[in-house]
Amino acid sequence: MSADVRSFFGRPIIIGGGIAGLLTALHLAPEPVLILSRTPLGSDASSAWAQGGLAASLGVDDDPGLHLADTLAAGNGLCDAEIAGRILHAAPNAIEALANLGVRFDRTPEGALRLGLEAAHGRRRIVHAGGDGSGQEIMRALVEAVRSAPSIEVVEGVEARRLAVEDNTVRGVWASCSTSPVFLGTGRIVLATGGVGGLFLDSTNPLGSCGQGLALAARAGAVLADLEFIQFHPTALDGPDRPMPLISEAVRGEGATIIDETGQRFLEDLQDAELAPRDVVARAIWKHLSNGHRVFLDAREKPGPTFAQQFPTIASACRGAGIDPARDPIPIRPAQHYHMGGVAVDQDGHSSVAGLWACGEVASTGLHGANRLASNSLTEAIVCARWVAESVAGSPIGRRTRSTAREIPTPDPIPLRPLLSRTLGVMRDGEVLREAVSTLLPLAKRGDAVSDPAAVGLMIAIAALRREESRGAHYRTDFPDRAVIARRSRLTLDAALAAADNLACSPTLEGVEQ
Q1: pTM of the predicted model, to two decimals?
Q2: Which of 38, 144, 207, 355 has the most CB atoms within 10 Å of its CB?
């Protein structure tokens, strides 16, 4: 980082270079903004890998109320209906704004947006760009816009390691770069760091996304919400590659079916079969695999010969594995895909720490509830980015703070992946969750490279242990029924550490009760 860091004082600092971060910066223009990106823009962001597109009520047979009803149903009682309604009502205009920024959405010969269908949606309302390359196309347009914006300074190869907080107020961020650690003073920081896929062996996310934003917020004392709800996509390409290539839900929306090695459609008895909510399909596939079967996505008839044209990214991944989707069933298995939990934020994206906002997957707005409705995530990011920017613009820059830069180890989740994959996967139970807590507790306190990933894993495990029910993406084999009263969860790192300490001293759940 060659620039004089003192010249950046007071600027809003956006940590993360995906769709949420880039759009927030663009909406803040012409106010000078600093973006910290761990990698070159667009090279390692989950946003660029998104296939499914954006959900919005744009069809003549659709409206935001119908979209909201589907979202609430998928969320299994835990969505914040007011926030969800506000986001979904704003979605059509937000997509139009993206088009004005140069995003080339797929359109009909008449020029209208082409709308696709995905699981648990009652209408065709998924907007795509480049078939299954929606995230890549949106990122292309946003990166171009950011690169050409004189108000936005992008610093690549710099990773935020800790937030400086005094009296529950942000004062700046310690960051690491190739030369030496730096301290950037500001009273306005936006977390847009993505998800937690790098904590798991099987994930469709970039492996570098290991919950850094959650760790930053947690170490700063922020409240996190709904951490136990991790979505496992039912149809990842079952092969040796990691991250696992995603087979978009849109393929099933076009008629592909799920079969086993005998050709049986074993999901036929489920309501909506292949287009049931993701958690339902993922568990059914997981159980079938656990019983010794293999599972495949059969697209030979639908989409059939047009597969490569409709889904070029997926077709390319399949070809790399020696599979022709128009002729061969595609081997699949569930893989970690999206985190519904995150930093607890209000309708403007503000966290419980003054001067700290969160946007995108790292945030928990209340839109997704216990089970994200397909393609609502990019919609949430593009809508909330504007609201976050408006809130940041109206906030004080903070007072100047002197601080010595701190050298903090690069987070390393690799040693934790086997444990977290086994204990926090598609199916959970109290015994394995307690095992996770006891193993992660000393690691989270150590202060080395595994400590931040361990702290995030510990908070997820405590939240999962507290939720003694099965709801949405959180399934407890020892508590298979859904509780009558739906409640969202809230947790701080201090509370998680205290609960884990108590659990170590007690064989019962008394130490982790809310």
Answers
A1: 0.94
A2: 355
